[in-house]
Specification:
With about 300 residues, this protein is an alpha/beta fold. The chain has helices at about 1-15, 35-50, 55-65, 70-80, 85-100, 105-115, 165-185, 200-210, 225-245, 250-265, 280-285, 285-295; strands at about 125-135, 140-150, 155-160, 190, 210-215. It contains 12 helices and 5 strands. The chain has a 5-stranded mixed beta sheet with strand order 3-2-1-4-5, with helices on both faces. Helix 7 runs parallel beside helix 8.
Length: about 300
């Protein structure tokens, strides 16, 4: 009805010519990139007045002869991690702590939150988790247990019929440990949540293999963020696509499909994280074994 009355209004105002489609002109191209001097001016102004928003910063820069839109100011600050007012205030406090020795308790807490998991090599920390794939007709309920090496981003996953400690222990002893041994690394520590599948037999297997088992705090899922993010990637890039292309009737078919995606993820898929630095997880994880084989040859 709204479209009808809008066209009726045009007909009354402009006659039949008002019913012709409007001509749309081409949108202007992308503006040139922000120069280094302009970016430094934005940061300097934002840190000089950390409670100002992008529009006020833009107006202040205009008084200095620098013409940048508020959206450009916001994008530049967000790219540098200063998009939020709290982040700019924290940057000011951090600078004052270094120069004048003024370090508040709030700054200490924020600096403690900013740290990340640091590992030197594969095997130093492996993160594990499970998630529910779904209840498939003719197959039943299926789960997935996933592992991600924090030092190389290398991924393992297995389709299991139940989320039990026996399945988790079998995944550890039959999949993870042999892979690290073959690659020339030692699996030292695993990180899991407090689920029942990571207790009992799984704890016993860790003790027998000399692996340290660490658990996340209750309601702190982000502590195990490596594998949480990996499971999200597998869900979005594989399962949601695979279930729309194929009808699975057996658990073996699910595992074969998952193995194919993991080969692509570990060996071909581009990675941009700070751990891989442009390399694939396989290049990092299998580096020792590859180097040893070449040397022996």
């Amino acid at each position: 009805r709204t479209v009808f009355y809008r066209w009726k209004k045009r007909l009354r105002a402009y006659g039949a010519d008002g019913l012709h489609p409007k001509r749309t002109s081409a949108r202007p191209g992308r503006p040139p990139r922000l120069g280094l001097g302009e970016e430094r001016a934005i940061v300097a102004t934002a840190l000089a007045w950390p409670t100002w928003g992008p529009k006020r910063v833009s107006l202040q820069l205009a008084r200095q002869g620098i013409q940048v839109s508020p959206s450009t100011v916001w994008r530049a600050l967000r790219r540098l991690g200063l998009g939020r007012r709290e982040a700019r205030l924290l940057a000011v406090e951090g600078h004052a702590a270094k120069t004048a020795g003024l370090l508040t308790e709030r700054t200490r807490r924020a600096l403690r939150r900013a740290r990340h998991v640091a590992v030197d090599e594969p095997g130093e920390l492996v993160c594990l988790d499970t998630f529910f794939i779904g209840k498939l007709k003719g197959v039943g309920q299926m789960w997935q247990i996933t592992a991600c090496d924090a030092g190389s981003s290398y991924a393992w996953a297995k389709v299991i019929p139940a989320r039990t400690a026996e399945e988790a222990a079998r995944f550890l002893t039959e999949v993870l440990v042999p892979a690290f041994t073959q690659a020339g690394w030692k699996l030292r520590r695993v990180l899991t949540d407090r689920g029942s599948e990571f207790q009992g037999e799984f704890d016993q297997a860790c003790r027998e293999l000399g692996i340290t088992h660490a658990r996340t705090k209750p309601r702190h899922a982000w502590t195990n963020g490596f594998v949480e993010r990996l499971q999200g990637t597998i869900l979005h890039e594989h399962w949601r696509v695979a279930f729309r292309r194929r009808y699975f009737t057996r658990a073996r078919q699910l595992q074969e499909s998952l193995d194919g995606f993991l080969r692509f993820y570990n060996e071909e898929r581009p990675h941009q994280g700070y751990r891989t630095q442009g390399r694939t997880p396989a290049e990092v994880f299998w580096g020792v074994a590859a180097h040893t084989s070449v040397k022996e040859a």
